[in-house]
Design a protein that fits this description.
By secondary structure, this protein is mostly helical. The longest helix has 25 residues. The radius of gyration is 13 Å and the shape is globular. The protein has one domain. The termini are far apart.
Amino acid sequence: MSLSLDDYRTKLINKILFASSQEEVKGFIDTAIKAFGQHKVSVHIIVRFLDKISSELDLFNPMDKDAQQWSNIKVARIHFFRIKRSLESLAL
């Protein structure tokens, strides 16, 4: 059985939170984007996925996370923004 986008988003958030480095965070995100490309997911769906995951990361309280997790969240949001800008420029 394949994962739904909601399940995939939840798994990616957990990978981001528990990554041991910023490079690992970027690697998890890049792997997810590459998988979307391999499955020929439309750019618009990928952008919505990135928007939704960024919104979910915004909901985390820094007081509830350790320094590494908070750093991972910040790096993920920056990386999502860069990927989204790149994808949007391709879709034009």
